[in-house]
Amino acid sequence: MTDPNPYPTSDYGRNTNRADVLIVGAGISGMTTAIDMIRKGNGRNFIIVERGNQVGGTWNDQRYPGCCCDVWSHLYSLSFEPNPNWTREYPGQEEILDYLIDVAHKYQLYKHIRFNTSVEEARWDGATNTWKTRIARLGSKDSEFGKEYTVTSDFLVSGVGQLNVPKYPDIKGLESFQGKTMHSSRWDWDYDLRDKKIGIIGNGATAAQIIPEIAKVCKNLTVFQRTPNWVVPRDDKPISPVTQAIYKYVPFVRRRYRAACMDFRESFFEIIFDVNSPVHDAMMSASKDHLAAQLPGEKYAELREKLQPHYEVGCKRVIITDDYFPTFARENVVLETSPITEITSNGVAVEGDRHHDFDLLVLATGFKTTQFMYPIKIYGSNGRSIEDIWASGASAYLGMTVPSMPNFSMLYGPNTNLGHNSIILMIEAQSMYINALIKKVKAAKQQGGSLCIEPKPRVVQEYNNEIQAQLSKSTFADPNCNSWYKNEAGLITNNWSDTVVSYQKRTSSINWDEFDIQGEGNVDVGAKGKTSWPRVVEETQVSNTMILAGLATAAGAVAAGMLSRGTLREVVRH
Ligand code: NA7
C-alpha cells in the first residue's frame, strides 16, 4: 500500500492553513493563550498571525525615547515565568521586549507565528462550525506567493488589545505640515533630534515619558496640553545584583515581593471607586505636593496652575513620573495651553493668532481604543457583523465572549482595562478561561463532532448592566474629563469595574448554562454543568507577622531539636 501522505507535515498546517485555533496577535495576550494551550493540554495545533515583525505587541510598537512601564517589573511579568533578573523597579521597553522574546523562545512559539501578516476579515461558517479568516501577506517576497490566503480554524482568539491602532488627531491641516511627523507608537530613530525645533501634541502617559528625554537633546520643545493630568512620584531605581540573586535563589522572597506589589496596587482600586476614601485624598495630596515640590516658588506659580487638574483623580490614567514637571523648568521647553486652531506647512497655530515653527511634530495622541478589533471585519452566525452588535458601544461577557460570535474570544477586550493594577494579571485569567472554552470545542472534535458555543444574549446584557452600574459610580465617569476609557457617547467601554481578585474569581469557572451550545459531541467536561480551575493567587495570603511567627516557631523547634540531640549526645558520651 502506498503512503497517502509521504511528507511529514505540521499539525497546524503551514501549507494547508488549517488549525484548531487561530490567534490574532503575538503580544502578551496571544502569547499567553498559546502558552496555556501547551500547558493546559490543548496541544500545539495553533497558528498565530502578527502584523509586526516581532513578538511583544505594544512593547514592540512603542519604541519612543523614555518608553517604560508604569507598573513594577515584578508585577508586570507572567506569574508562571517570573524573572528574577529585572534590572529596574520599573522596566524599560527594551527589557520587557527581551523578556517576552525569551518567553516566546522557551515555549517555541516562533514556529507558530506568521509575522508581517494581517487579518482582514473573519467569517463564521455555520455549515462546518469553523472560522474562515482572510489573511493578507504584508512582506514583499511573501506576497509573491499570493497576496491573501484563508485560515480555517475551530476557534478564533483575538489578542489585539486596546492600544494597537494609533489615533491621529483630527486637526485641520495635519496633512499640510512639511516637516517630519511621527506618531509616538511609530518612532523613527533615524531622525536626529539634535538642534531641532519640536512640537508634541498630547501630554498623556506616553508624552510624559517622551518629553523629558527629547527635551535634553533638541533645540526647543513646545508641549501642547489640552487637559492637565494627575501626576504622582515614581521613585524608580535599579535592582542591585545582590537583590537579583536573592530573587533567583530564594524564590520565596521574590514571590513575597510580588504579592506585596499586588496588595499595594489592589488597594489603589479605592481611589477610583470611593472618592471619600482616605486613599483618594492621599493620592490627590501626593500629586499636589509633587507639583509644588518639583516646580516650587512664585517663579512657577503660573506653570503650576496650568499643570493642576480640576477633575477627579483616576478619571484619566494617573501619570507616574519624577522627571515630567521639572522638564518645564528648562529654558528650552514651553507649555502651550491655548487651543490649537490649525496645523500649517511649517508648524502649529493656536488661538490668539500665535504660531509655533517646527522641524518635527510628535503626535502623542493615543490609540483607537474604543473601536475594539479595528480595522478587522468579523462576521458571526447568520453573517452578523461585530460592528452591528457593537453599534451602541463595545461589550463582551467578562470582556471575552460576544453573542452571535461562536467559538470566539478576546483578551484585553471591552471593560477589562485597569486603572490601578497590572493588565497581565487580567490576561492570565482570560487565557485560562478561553482555554477552557477551547478544550470543550476540541473535546467535541475528538468525538468526531463539532460545537458552536456562544454566550446567551440575556446573560451578557445582565452582566453589562451590572458592571455599567458599578462604573457609573467611579471616577472614570466624571463628566469633567474625557479619556480613552470612554467612547464618544461617554459610555465606559474599556475599564473593568472591580478589583483584579474579583475578576480572577469570577473567571475561574465556566457555567455552561450561560452559553448556547449547539452541534455534535457536547462532552461533559465538568461537574454540575460547570468547569472550574484554581485562579492564580497573587495577593498576600499570610501576613508577614504570621510568617515571622512561623519562622520563630520553626527556629525554636530546630533549636530545641539540636539542644535535645546535644543533650542526648552528652548522655551517650557519659
Ligand atoms: P492618551 O492617554 O489617550 O493621551 C492622548 C493625549 O493626546 C492626551 O493628552 C490628549 O488630550 C491629546 N490629544 C488627543 N487628540 C488631541 C487633539 N486633537 N488636540 C490636542 N490634544 C489631543 O494616550 P497615551 O498614548 O498617552 O497613553 C495611552 C495609554 O498607553 C496609557 O494610558 C498607558 O496605559 C499606555 P486630552 O487629555 O484628551 O485633552
Give the topology, please.
Blueprint lengths: L17 E7 L3 H12 L6 E4 L8 H4 L31 H14 L6 E2 L2 E9 L4 E8 L10 E11 L21 E4 L13 E5 L3 H11 L4 E5 L6 E2 L8 H9 L1 H17 L1 H5 L4 H17 L6 H7 L11 E2 L3 H4 L5 E4 L3 E4 L3 E4 L3 E4 L2 E4 L13 E3 L6 H4 L18 E3 L12 H24 L3 E6 L1 H15 L28 H7 L2 E3 L3 E6 L9 E3 L11 H30 L1
Parallel strand pairs: 1-2, 1-6, 2-3, 4-17, 6-18, 7-16, 8-9, 8-16, 9-12, 10-11
Antiparallel strand pairs: 4-5, 5-6, 13-14, 14-15, 19-21, 20-22
Helix pairs in contact: 1-12, 5-6
This protein binds ligand NA7.
Ligand NA7 binds next to helix 4.
Helix content: 25-40%
Number of beta-strand segments: 22
Integer-rounded radius of gyration: 27 Å
Q: Give every kind of bound small molecule, once each.
A: ligand NA7
Please, what is the average pLDDT? 94
Content-based structural category: alpha/beta
- The H-level CATH homologous superfamily of the largest domain, spelled out, is FAD/NAD(P)-binding domain
The name of the CATH architecture of the largest domain is 3-Layer(bba) Sandwich
Architecture overview:
This protein is of the alpha/beta class. It folds into three domains: 13-165 and 370-532, 3-Layer(bba) Sandwich (FAD/NAD(P)-binding domain), CATH 3.50.50; 174-230 and 276-311 and 316-363, 3-Layer(bba) Sandwich (FAD/NAD(P)-binding domain); 545-573, no CATH class. It has 15 helices and 22 strands. Strand 13 (340-343) and strand 14 (347-350) form a beta hairpin. Helix 1 packs across helix 12 and helix 5 packs across helix 6. The model is unreliable at 567-574 (pLDDT under 50). Bound molecules: ligand NA7. Residues 163, 169-171, 184, 201-207, 224, 226-227, 317, 340, 364-366, 482, 484 line the site of ligand NA7.
